[in-house]
Amino acid sequence: MSAEKIVASLEKLVKLHQSLNILANKKTEIVKLGDTEALNQLLVDEQKHIKAIDMTEKERQSAVTAFLQSKGQPAEPSTITRVIELSSLTEAEALNRLKDELIEEAVKLKEQNHLNQQLIYQSLQFVNITLDMLRPQNQQFNYDKPSHQKQQGSNSMFDSRA
To answer: Would you indicate the residue range of the signal peptide (predicted)?
Structure first.
C-alpha cells in the first residue's frame, strides 16, 4: 500500500489551515472595527473549518494506521517520521514538504490567534473602563452621622431637659 491517502489528507489539512489563517486575519480586522455581527458570522465559519479539520485528521489517522499495518508495522506510535521512513522516495519528499507546510500554517495560526486574543482583551478593558466612567459613583466622605444614630434620634452626651 502506498501513502497516497496520507498525502491527500495532509494536502487537505494544509489547505484547511491556510483557509483558517485567512479567517484569523479577517477576525483581526473585524475586532479592530468592532463589528459584532461580522464577528459572529466569522465564528460560525471558523467552527465549520474546525469540524472539517477534525474529520480530515481522523481520515489521516486511519490512513496512517492502514499504511503501517500494510507494511507489517504496529499501529502505535503512528508518527509522520515512521511513515516517511516506510514510504518510497517520492512519497517521502511529498510527506516532508507537507509536514513542513502544515507546521508553518499552524505556527502562523497560533501567532494570529494570540494577536486576536490580545486585541479582544484590550477591547474588553476599554469597555470596562468606559462603563466605570459612566456609572455613578457612590462616594461617602464620612461627613454624615452614621446611619444607626440617625434613626435613634439625638444621643448627645448632655441631657438638655435637666
So the answer is: none
Q: Is residue 146 part of a domain?
A: no
Please tell me the pTM assigned to this model: 0.73
- 10-15 contacts, C-beta under 8 A, 24 or more apart: 10/60, 10/95, 10/98, 10/99, 10/102, 11/98, 12/56, 13/53, 13/56, 13/57, 13/60, 13/102, 14/98, 14/101, 14/102, 14/105
Of 57, 44, 74, which is closest to residue 17 (Cα–Cα)? 57
Residue 25: domain span: 4-136
Interaxial angle between packed helices 4-33 and 36-70, expressed in degrees from 0 to 180 and rounded to the nearest 10: 170
Query: What 3-state class would DSSP assign to 128?
Result: helix
Q: Which three cell numbers stand for residue 35?
A: 463589528
Q: How many domains is the chain partitioned into structurally?
A: 1
Tell me if 110 is assigned to some domain: yes
What are the pLDDT digits (tens) for 97-132?
999 999 999 999 999 999 999 988 988 888 888 887
Q: CA Rg, the chain, in Å?
A: 31
Q: What is the 3-state secondary structure (H, E, C) of 81-122?
A: HHHHHHCCHHHHHHHHHHHHHHHHHHHHHHHHHHHHHHHHHH
Grid cell of 72 as nine digits: 507489517
Question: Is there a domain that residue 52 lies in?
Answer: yes
